[in-house]
Write a structure and sequence with these properties.
This protein is α+β, with helices and mostly antiparallel strands and 441 residues long. Helices cover 33% and strands 24% of the residues. Helix 1 runs antiparallel to helix 2 and helix 13 runs antiparallel to helix 14. The protein binds flavin-adenine dinucleotide.
Length: 441
């Protein structure tokens, strides 16, 4: 763990911008930031877009590196920030810019947690479709910066579909907006597209507007069990060709199921969890269409618990198996099954266990590998699995053992063109002060 030292003379300027109590240089209070692998010397807690802009202008002029931080739920692998002169907490960015339950839109500060937002709109019978793990801590800014989505992605689309506006400050301190608060407004769409998934390397997101959805009055989850991944994927295809439009459609491998409540609900099989919403008549239609494939139907508390466990899976697997490597994949639909086959065969030939879980109707998969016993060559197996991924796949490492961190960057796979990324980075953060080292171009 390295420590960055911010010259004391900068503290005075930062205190003038954020207020004396909002500049933290007490090491005990900076402990939380150790997950980043680099301990910052100072953290600031700005309360508005204007304060964020002032901090970034100052940091840019002085050449100080800045790392934005929300709830610290992101697990650190691969390219962690090289240095942190200033850690910028977004947790005080909690204004409500607008909220129109009738229009199904809300505009809020980036420091809201996902649980706070869900609870606020839930009180009016509405749903926010972002379902990240650890929602009590994960912030809206962090969700947008990582660009990931959970099981609700199947029925409600991804962040780029329901984020309708974004407010940000670039690395050189310029304030900007993309999109707006009206669903039809597409002006600035490109900035939203760029910032979602940019890992805080281009700008600090200070607020966002979202399209909301009517919350379902009742839901039920149908669990089907299959002997093989191929049969489970065939079932996915049947559901997707049917007139049914479930909220969620999630594949759970036997080993992944063992980590869910009750050790998996339908035994040591490949399961497909299908969550449906609607009236009694609509749910009855699901029952009759899905027929004998249904091994189990769950609702109420058990259903909530099962989906929460599926959402949290990317944290549960590493907690249970710290020696695991967990990779998030985005795949063309036709490639999901071959990739599952590759995962199993790489595990079998290297004395490893494997688990997979994912929103397979949109080609999202989390794939985990860990030693079944000694000896096991985890690193070579992950490299072999990564090399077999289809050309159009993207892969990011969500967790790996500390000793493999230096290899994790090589396991990542992104179709992004590095020349265009360099040009965007230069236009928004020419001095490379934001999350320096996170992306290596
Ligand atoms: C189903 C699912 C599974 C997931 N699994 C994992 C996982 O296993 N591991 C994992 O790492 N992530 C995972 N994610 C991503 C997850 O969304 C984020 O980790 C989480 O939402 C981040 O929120 P946070 O406030 O904790 O962000 P932090 O952890 O604090 O920050 C995450 C990243 O975003 C940047 N950032 C934070 N706030 C801002 C901002 N306002 N503007 C610009 N940049 C910012 C940070 O610098 C950092 O690079 C998953 C998401 C989903 C939907």
């Amino acid at each position: 763990m390295s420590t960055t030292t911010t010259p004391v003379r900068f503290l005075r300027e930062l205190r003038e911008i954020c207020g004396a109590g909002r500049v933290i240089d007490d090491p005990a209070r900076l402990e939380q930031a150790q997950v980043l692998g680099v301990t910052p010397a100072v953290a600031v807690e700005p309360a508005s877009t204007e304060e964020v802009a002032a901090v970034l202008s100052f940091a840019n002029a002085q050449g100080l590196s800045v790392v934005p931080a929300g709830g610290f739920t992101q697990q650190q692998t691969g390219n962690t920030p090289q240095a942190i002169d200033v850690l910028l907490y977004t947790t005080r960015l909690t204004d409500v810019e607008h909220y129109d339950p009738g229009d199904l839109t809300i505009g809020i500060g980036a420091g809201w947690t996902i649980a706070q937002l869900s609870s606020k709109v839930g009180a009016d019978g509405l749903l926010f479709a972002g379902d990240a793990p650890l929602p009590e801590r994960a912030t809206i800014g962090g969700l947008l910066a990582t660009g990931m989505t959970g099981p609700l992605r199947h029925g409600y689309g991804g962040l780029r579909d329901y984020c309708i506006g974004i407010k940000f400050v670039t690395g050189d301190g310029r304030k900007g907006k993309g999109g707006g608060r009206v669903v039809k407004n597409v002006a600035g769409f490109d900035m939203m597209k760029l910032l979602i998934g940019s890992q805080g390397t281009l700008a600090i997101i200070t607020g966002a507007s979202f399209k909301l959805f009517p919350a379902p009055r009742q839901t039920s989850t149908f669990v089907a069990g299959f002997a093989t991944a191929a049969e489970a994927i065939q079932y996915r295809n049947t559901v997707m060709r049917s007139p049914l439009s479930p909220m969620c459609l999630e594949l759970v491998s036997p080993q992944a199921g063992a980590l869910l409540p009750g050790g998996g609900r339908s035994g040591k099989v490949w399961s497909v969890y299908l969550r449906a919403s609607g009236s009694d008549a609509v749910l009855a239609r699901y029952r009759s269409e899905l027929g004998t494939a249904i091994a189990l139907e769950i609702d109420g508390h058990d259903e909530q618990e099962a989906w929460r466990a599926i959402e949290d899976f990317s944290h549960t697997l590493p907690e249970r198996y710290p020696d695991s490597v967990l990779i998030s994949l985005s795949l063309p639909l036709a490639d999901v099954q071959p990739v599952l086959d590759d995962l199993e065969s790489v595990a079998a030939s290297n004395n490893l266990m494997s688990a997979a879980i994912g929103t397979v109707g949109v080609g999202r998969l989390l794939a985990g590998l860990w030693p079944a016993g000694e000896p096991a060559n985890l690193s070579a197996a992950v490299s072999a699995f990564r090399d077999r991924l289809p050309r159009d796949a993207s892969a990011s490492v969500l967790h790996c053992p500390d000793k493999m961190r230096s290899q994790a960057a090589a396991w990542e796979k992104t179709p992004t063109h590095s020349d265009s990324m360099k040009a965007v980075k230069h236009a928004l953060d020419a001095k490379d002060i934001l999350n320096r080292g996170r992306f290596l171009f």
